[in-house]
Write a structure and sequence with these properties.
disordered N terminus, alpha/beta, 16% strand, seven-stranded mixed sheet, Transcription Elongation Factor S-II, Chain A, 18 strands, homodimer, 40% helix, Aminopeptidase
Chain lengths: 764, 764
Amino acid sequence: MRRLRVTVTAALAAVLSIPCGLSAQASPTRQAADHSTTDRWEKAFRAIPDPGRMRRYMERLAARPHHVGSEYDKQNAEWILERFRAWGLDAKIERFDVLFPTPERRVVEMVEPTRFRAKLREPALKADPTSRQQKEQLPTYNAYSGDGDVTAPLVYVNYGLPDDYERLERLGVSVEGKIVIVKYGRSWRGVKPKVAAEHGAVGCIIYSDPRDDGFFGGDVFPKGPMRPDFGVQRGSVMDITQHPGDPLTPGVGATEGVQRQPLEGNPSIQRIPVQPISYGDAQPLLAALGGPLAPPEWRGALPLPYHVGAGPAKVHLAVQSNWDVKPVYDVIARIEGSEYPDEWIVRGNHHDAWVNGAEDPVSGQVALLEEARALGELLHQGWRPRRTIIYAAWDGEEPMLLGSTEWVEQHADELRKHAVAYINSDTNGRGYLRASGSHTLQHFINEVAASIPDPESGLSVLQRRRLAAIARGSKAERTRLRHGGDVRIGALGSGSDFTGFIDHLGVASLNLGFGGEDQGGIYHSIYDDIYWFMHFSDSDFAYGRAMAQTVGTAVIRLADAEVLPYRFTDLAQTVGTYVKQLKELVETQRAKALETNQELDEGVFAATTDPRRPTVAPARAVIPPHLNFAPLDNAVDALTRSAKRYQEARKAARSGGTGGAAGGARPSAVELKRLNELLIQSERRLTDPDGLPGRPWYRHMVYAPGEYSGYGAKTLPGVREAIELKRYDRADAEIVRAAKVLEAEAALVDEAAGMLEDSGGGAR
Amino acid sequence: MRRLRVTVTAALAAVLSIPCGLSAQASPTRQAADHSTTDRWEKAFRAIPDPGRMRRYMERLAARPHHVGSEYDKQNAEWILERFRAWGLDAKIERFDVLFPTPERRVVEMVEPTRFRAKLREPALKADPTSRQQKEQLPTYNAYSGDGDVTAPLVYVNYGLPDDYERLERLGVSVEGKIVIVKYGRSWRGVKPKVAAEHGAVGCIIYSDPRDDGFFGGDVFPKGPMRPDFGVQRGSVMDITQHPGDPLTPGVGATEGVQRQPLEGNPSIQRIPVQPISYGDAQPLLAALGGPLAPPEWRGALPLPYHVGAGPAKVHLAVQSNWDVKPVYDVIARIEGSEYPDEWIVRGNHHDAWVNGAEDPVSGQVALLEEARALGELLHQGWRPRRTIIYAAWDGEEPMLLGSTEWVEQHADELRKHAVAYINSDTNGRGYLRASGSHTLQHFINEVAASIPDPESGLSVLQRRRLAAIARGSKAERTRLRHGGDVRIGALGSGSDFTGFIDHLGVASLNLGFGGEDQGGIYHSIYDDIYWFMHFSDSDFAYGRAMAQTVGTAVIRLADAEVLPYRFTDLAQTVGTYVKQLKELVETQRAKALETNQELDEGVFAATTDPRRPTVAPARAVIPPHLNFAPLDNAVDALTRSAKRYQEARKAARSGGTGGAAGGARPSAVELKRLNELLIQSERRLTDPDGLPGRPWYRHMVYAPGEYSGYGAKTLPGVREAIELKRYDRADAEIVRAAKVLEAEAALVDEAAGMLEDSGGGAR
C-alpha cells in the first residue's frame, strides 16, 4: 500500500489539493504527501496516546453503573461528546428509542427435595468501593427473557448446545416440561434458552461454573481476578437469529415516528423464562440432582458429582420484566476527508456497560478516546486525512448491539455507498493482538501490527504475535509462518458492534483487541470495575496505549491510502479453505452416519449398555447425499485468478514507479477515484439482498454468527448450516448462491485489475 | 488348538494311557480324549462355579483385616488350605519370612502460614460394619517409606512424573530441599518419591484427588462407590527398579537360613519419607500454596485454585516404621498331570489385603477358589488333566509381590524347566474381559472368551468385548476387528503376581479380570469391604462366575492341549508394531528437539513469557542420533517368517488329519512330547540372563514395568528406555540385545515347525 503511494505521488500531486473543510495553511506538508510524510504523521500520532489520560477516562466512565437507560449512561455520552468537541472533532449525539426490558420479579427456588432460595444478588465487597453502589446496579438478569412462572423438575444439560441434548437422549433423559440448568460458555447465551425451548423445556437457568471462570482458573475476586462464588454474568438473550438491534424496529433506525412492531409475540424475545445465577446459588441445585451421572466432559469444578436428573430437585422459576422503551445515545464524531470525503473509515467501541464495566467496554473506549484526541492533535498540527473518518462511541451494545445496529440501519444507504471499512474494539487487556475480520484486510492489519511496539517484549506487536502463533501452531502452520506468511485473522461472528456493518451491510470490518495474558471472571458482573482492572488487568494502560496506536495507525493508513489496501488473494485463499472444510464436513458426517448405522446393525449399542446404567441407542442416521461443490470450486478458482491478476497489476504499478522514468502512464486522479470507488464495493459484493435462509437481515454470504452457536462465526454460513443442521435439501442451492457472490467478487476484482493495467499501460 | 486335538487323537490314542497318580477306573473317557470329550469336560466344568459359594467365601475372607503378619491373614491361608484339601487337591502352605515395615509414627502438619494437623485416619461409617474394626486395621501409610522427620515448604507437582518436574522448571520452581505433594495416579506410587528424591525433595506426600477417584466420578461412599473425603489409599512404595519381593533376599526364596542383605542402605527402600493422605487432609495444604498457578491439566477437583508453591505453606512430615520380618503364607495346590506331569500350568491370585480387601483381592480369590473346587469335582467325575496344574493363593502381594516372588525365586529352576504358562488374576468386577499378557497367548485367550457366556448381554464374552473394541477403536482397528481379527491383548507391566513369572523367569503369562462397568474409590482403604462390594460391584457374583469359567476353561485347555497353543504370528506382528513405535518415538523426539532449539533461536520463549507470570525457557535440547534399527528389523522379519512356517505346518497337520487317510505320518507321542518341551521354552528364549540395564532381575527383553512409570508396561524395554530417558549411547547395543532374543525365538519356532513338518511328512 504505502509503497504504491510513493510511486504514484508525483502523478497525483495535482489532485492532492482538492479543497476540504480545513484551511490550506494548516497543511504545510500537503503537497508532498509521500511515504515519509505519511510515516511521519503516523509516528506523530503514535507518540500521543497517554496511559495517564486513559486511566483518568476510566475513572470517569466506570465510576458509576452506566447501563442503557441509566442516568450515568446519558452523562457519559454527554461527557464523551464534550471531549470529542474539545479535541476539535465535529461531534453529535444520535438518539434512538429502543425496547430495553429490566427485571421486575426474579425467583429461583428449589421446592423439592429440600427448600432453598437462590440469592440472585452479588454482594458488595469491602475492598472494592464501586461494588457498593447497589442502588444504581441492574439486578442480575437476562434481558429479553420470556416472562413466566414455572415449577418443574430440574435437568442439567451441560452448555445447552444441540449436541448436549443428543447426549442427554442417549442417557434416556428428556427435558420436556422440565427446567434446564446449563452452564455459561461454548455458545452465545441466547442460544441456550432457545434450544431448551425447542426441546420442550419450560424454563432455563444459566450459571457460571467455576471450571470456566471461577476458582479453577485462579484466585477469586478480590484476592484474584476470577469469579467469586456469588458473582453473576448478566447478559442479553435476545434471539439474534432474526437480527440484532431493537426488536420493535427491525431493519430501520428506531427514531421517533418510525413504525414499531408489537411486543406481543415478538420473535426476538425468548419463549421461556431465563435467569442467570452464580455458582454459589447453583451448587445446592446441582447437588440435589439424581439420575444418571453426567458424562465426564460435562462435569464442572463444583465439589460434587454432576448428575443430570431429571429431579428429584424441583425448581420454581419466575421472571417478569418491565418492557419499557429507553433511549440510547450514540456519540458520533467526524473528520471530513480532504480528498475523498465520500469514502468513510468508521471506528467504534461501545460506552454502555451492564454495571460499571471497567473492562467491558471502558478498557476499549479509553483507547478510542485517545485515538480521537490524537487525531485532533494531528489536525491541529496540520494533518488532513484524504478520507472521512467517523468515530463512534456506541450505546446499548450490551442488550444486543442496539446503538450500532440502529445507527447502521438508519444510515444504511449512505454506508453502503461510502463505507470503506469499520474497525471495532470492545474490551482490551494485556498480551497479544487479536484480530478478526474481513480477510481482504488480513495483510493490512499484519502491516499495521509490524509498526507497533509491544510494551512487554521489545518486539513489534506483529513479531510477538507471530512467535506466539509459531509456539501454538501446527507443523504446517509453523512452516507457513516461518516462510513469511501473514498471521491469519479469524472470521467474524457476532457479539460486538461490527455485526451490523459486516453482516447486514457488507462493510469490510476488523475487530481488534489485546489479550491472552490475564484471565478474569468478572464479565458482566458488578466486579467488572476499576478496582478489578487496576489490580488484575492492564493497570498501567501500556496495552491501552498499544491499542490506541494500533487502531489509530490503521485508521490513518486507511484514510490516507492512495489505493485502498484490500488484498483479495487472502480472501480467495481463505474461502478456498472454507470450501475444503465444507467438503470434509460432509465426508465426516457421512462416515459417522455410516458407522452409526453399521454399529446399530452389529448390535454395538445393545452390547455395551450397562443394565445398571442403561443407555439408549442412537436413532438410525440419515446418510448425507453427495453435494455438487463444483459451483463453489469454480467460483474460488475465478476469484483466485482475478485476485492474482489484481495483485500483479498492483505490483507492476509499483515496479513501474520505482524505476522513475520507466513504465507507461500512471493512473490519473480520476482513475484512482474510480478504482477506489469500485474497491469499496468489494465487500458489498459478498452479500445477497435475500440474506441467509430464514434470517434475511444477515446478508453476508461468507461470514455470519451461527444459528446455534451465536457469537461463533460460521463461514459460508448458508452452505455450512445446511450441512450442519442436516438440511441437505437446501445445501446445493446455497452452494450456488455462495458461488454467485464469489463470482461477482471475482468480476469486480478483474475489473479493478483491468483499471490498473489500463492506467499503468501494462502489456497484457 | 482344539481342532488339531481332533486330528491327532487317533494316532495318539496309544500314549494317552500313560500311568498317572489317579486310578484308571476313574477315567472312563480316557481312551477317547477327543474334541467332544474335552468339550464335554469344559462344559461340565463351566456348570460348576456357584455365585452363592463365592459370596460365602467373600464373607469369610473379607470378614476382618488380613494384611501380612496379621492373625486373620494366617487364618485365611489355613482356611484356603483346608478348602483345597477338602476338594481333593494336594495342597500345602509354603512359608517365607520377609521384611514388612509397619508404621510407628506418622505426622503431616502444616506449621505455616497457619497450623493444621492432618487426621491420617479413615473414619468408621455407621452403614458399614467392617469399617469399625479399627483395632485390626493397618494405619494409612506407604510401606517401605524412608524413615525421616523433615520440615520444609511445600510444592505441588501434579502426579510427580519426570515430565511434571520439567514443567515445574519452566515455571521457575525448584523442589530442592522442599516437601512435594503429588497426586495418586498415572504412575505406580513408588515412582513418585523416587523421582522426588532424585530432584532433591526431602519428603513426599501423596494424596487421592477427587478428580481421579472421588466425587468427580460419582457419589462417594457409602452413598456411592467413590472415595469419601477422608478415604486414603495405602500402598507399597518399595523401589521395584531392582526387583520386587523381599528386599533382604533378592533372587532367592526368603526361607530359613538364607543369607539376608542388611536393612541399612537397602536400595529397595525409599530415601525420603512418604505418607499418603486423603483429599480431606490435602485440601488445607493445597489451599495454602501460593506461587504460580498450576497448569490447567494439573488441576484437580478440589474447590480451590491449584497453585504450585513453593510455600508459603510449610509442612512438617515425619515417618518412622517398625522394620520387622514377618511370615507370608502361600497356599499351593497341585493336580498331577496324567501324561506330562513335568509340564505345569500355574494359576494364582493373592489372598492378603491392605485391610478387608473385598475387591482387592477377594473378588479374584473367590473365583480362583471356585475354579479349584470345580476341578476337584471334575477329578471326582473322572477327568485327568494331561499336564500338572498348580493353584496358588499368594500372600504378601500388597507389600510388593512378596509371596509370589519368593515362591518364584525358590522354585526358579523347576519353573524354568516345567512352566507352560502362568495365569493371574487380582480383582474382578462387572463388564468386559480385560486380558494382558504374552502375545503368543493372544489367540488362545480369544478362543477361550468365545466359549464363555457374558452374564449381561446374552453374547459371548468375546463378542461383547469385540463390539466394545469396535465402539472405541480407531477406524483401522475397527476394520481389522470387522474382518475377524482377534481382540488385542495388552502387554504386561507389573503390579500383580505375574511379575516374577514373566519378567524374571520368562514364563508365558496372562492377567485376566472383568471390569469397566463400575467405578470405585475404595482402593486400598478400609472401605474396600463387603458392604462396598455388595452395593457397588459384582454383587450377584455373575461376573465372579464368568471369571471362574474363563480362567478354568483356559487352565483345562492348556492342561489338555495336544500341542501347546502358542501362536507366534501374533507375537511377531505385535513386536513389529513395537519396533515401529520405537522408530516413531525417536523421530518424534528428534522433531521436538529440533523445534525446541529453533524456537530458542527465534526467541519464541522470550517473546511469550508474561512479565507478571514469568516462565523459564527450556534448556537447549539434545538431538537424538540416528539409530541402527536394522538388527531389530531383521529379527522381526525372521520371526515373522518362522512363525508363518510354524503356523502353516500346524495347518497342514490339521488338513492332513481331517482327510483321514490323506497325508503322511502323524507326530508320534515322543515327537509331540519333544515339540511341547521345545514350545515351553519359547517364552524363555525372550529373556537375557544379564537382564535389563541397571536391573538384572528383569530378564524379559520384550516386556517390563517402566523404570519411571512403574506398573505401566514398557515394550522392548531396554531399547525404549534408552530412548525415553535419552541415554542414546546405549540404545544401539540394546537394539542388538533385543534382536538377539528375537532371533533365538525365531530359531526355536523354526525348529518347532521343522518337527511338525517332519512328523507330518510334509514336503518342504
